[in-house]
Amino acid sequence: MSHRSLIVVASKYGCTEKSAFLLQSRLGGAEVVNLRYGKVPDLAAYDTVILGGSIYYGRIRKDMAVFTAQYKQELLRKRLGLFICAGMTGKKGEEELKQAYPDIIYNKAIAKEIIGDEIYPDRISILDKCVLRMVKGKGPKTGGGLSMDKLERFAQTMSAGE
Ligand SMILES: Cc1cc2nc3c(=O)[nH]c(=O)nc-3n(C[C@H](O)[C@H](O)[C@H](O)COP(=O)(O)O)c2cc1C
C-alpha cells in the first residue's frame, strides 16, 4: 500500500500555507491544498492527513471548521496531524488549538502543534489592521514568527513510523 500524505490548510494571508510548504519539504511527497482556492482531492488516496489553520478572534478559519465537520468520518481513519498558526502561545494557544478541531479528531491526532505566526502588513485588510492596532497597540506588527523547532518536531512525529 502506498503511504501518501496530504496537507490541507486554511490560510488567510499565507502564514499557514507557508508552514504547509515548509512541512512538505520535510515530508517528501506530501501534497498541499489550500481550502481558499484548491479543490479537495479524494481523501481515500491518502493514509496521512495534516490539517493546518490560522486563528482569528480565537477561532480557526471557517473553511477548516467546515472541512473537518464535513469529512470527520473519513479523517478519523487517517494518521492525523493538526497544527495552527496563531499569535497566542502557552495556555491560551493550547486552548485555541484544542478548540480549533472537533474533539474526536483532536484526540486521535498523533501530532499537534502551535507553530507561531506571521503578519504581513502589506497584505492585511484595513479592518484587520484596525483590529490589530486595538489588540496590540503600537507594538511590532509582524507577529512573533514561525517556530522552526516546533515545525521540525511536528514533521518528525509525522514521519516516524510511517
Ligand atoms: C485581525 C487579526 C486577528 C487575529 N486574532 C488572533 C487570535 O484571536 N488569536 C491568535 O492566537 N492569533 C490571532 N491572530 C494572529 C494570526 O493567527 C496569525 O497572524 C497567523 O499567522 C495568520 O495566518 P494566515 O496568514 O495563514 O491566515 C490574528 C491576526 C489578525 C490579523
Per CATH, the superfamily is: Flavodoxin domain
Which stretches of 5+ consecutive residues score pLDDT under 50? Answer: none
Radius of gyration, whole Å: 15 Å
> Which assembly state applies to the chains in this document?
single chain
CATH hierarchy, class: Alpha Beta
Question: Helical stretch count?
Answer: 7
What pattern of helices and strands is seen along the backbone?
EHEEEHHEHHEHEH
Which architecture would the CATH scheme give at its second level?
3-Layer(aba) Sandwich
Q: Tell me what portion of residues adopts beta-strand conformation.
A: 15-25%
Distance between the termini: 12 Å
Which overall shape is indicated by the principal axes computed on the Cα atoms? Answer: globular
Number of domains: 1
The major β-sheet equals: 7 strands, mixed
Into which percent range does the helicity of residues fall?
40-55%
Name the structural class.
alpha/beta
* Ligands, ions, cofactors: flavin mononucleotide
Mean pLDDT over the full residue set: 92
Extended strand count: 7
CATH topology, anyone? Rossmann fold
Structural key phrases:
single chain, 162 residues, alpha/beta, Rossmann fold, 7 helices, binds flavin mononucleotide
Note down, in words, how this protein is organized:
The protein has 162 residues and is of the alpha/beta class. It has one domain: Rossmann fold (3-Layer(aba) Sandwich), CATH 3.40.50.360. The chain is 40% helix and 23% strand. Strands 1, 2, 3, 4, 5, 6 and 7 form a seven-stranded mixed beta sheet that branches. The protein starts with a strand and ends with a helix. The mean pLDDT is 92. The structure holds flavin mononucleotide. The site of flavin mononucleotide has 24 residues, from helix 1, strand 3 and helix 6. The site of flavin mononucleotide (FMN) has 24 residues, from helix 1, strand 3 and helix 6.
